[in-house]
Specification:
Strands 1-2-3-4-5-7-6 form a seven-stranded mixed beta sheet, with helices on both faces. It has helices at residues 14-27, 39-51, 100-114, 130-138, and strands at residues 5-8, 57-62, 65-74, 84-91, 120-127, 142-153, 156-166. The protein is built from four helices and seven strands. The protein has a single domain (5-121), classed as Aminopeptidase. By secondary structure, the chain is α+β, with helices and mostly antiparallel strands.
């Protein structure tokens, strides 16, 4: 497997991004989403947050194929939260452990640090998930709190941890 090459996503990348995310929606508790997004929903999200807004969607290519993505989105919709950003990273199931997630976060965090519009980054981690907790800590995130039994998926209640990082 080659080294991940990180770049800004285009509309042409959305099917690959959707396929990666769909895996996590249908098979894991990594995301609390329980419904698969349609191609139209992906396009609308891309147009609203990336094309029309200050947010980013980056993909990592390995050997010419999209192997993962990272996105920013509003932390909360209220105007006072505009300088805060939420991050989500997903790696293709067959590409975990190969440095894709690290490459994506490294590039995104460098871009965010240079972007004066943002002050703090947040990431929510569904628990238990020791791999994601360690990943976020390696990238400078600090645990700020845990909501117990905040989500319900696959017949069980799940906690969610809030991680924060200054930009």
């Amino acid at each position: 497997m080659g080294a991940p090459a990180v770049r800004a996503a285009t509309t042409a990348d959305l099917p690959a991004v959707a396929a990666i995310y769909t895996h996590y929606v249908l098979r894991t508790t990594t995301t609390f989403n329980t419904e698969v997004r349609t191609p139209r929903q992906w396009q609308e999200r891309f147009d609203r947050h990336v094309v029309g807004g200050p947010h980013q969607l980056l993909v990592a290519e390995v050997d010419g194929a999209v192997a993962g993505y990272v996105e920013t989105q509003p932390f909360r919709e209220k105007p006072a939260y505009a300088r805060s950003v939420e991050l989500s990273v997903y790696v293709a199931p067959d590409g975990t452990g190969g440095g894709v997630g690290n490459a994506l976060y490294t590039v995104l965090l460098e871009r965010l640090a240079a972007d004066e519009r943002f002050h703090r980054a947040y990431s929510l981690v569904a628990l238990p998930n020791d791999v994601s907790v360690a990943f976020h800590q390696r990238h400078g995130f600090v645990l700020r709190g845990t909501l117990t039994e905040a989500g319900y998926k696959f017949g069980r209640y799940l906690d969610v941890a809030y991680y924060e990082r200054p930009l």
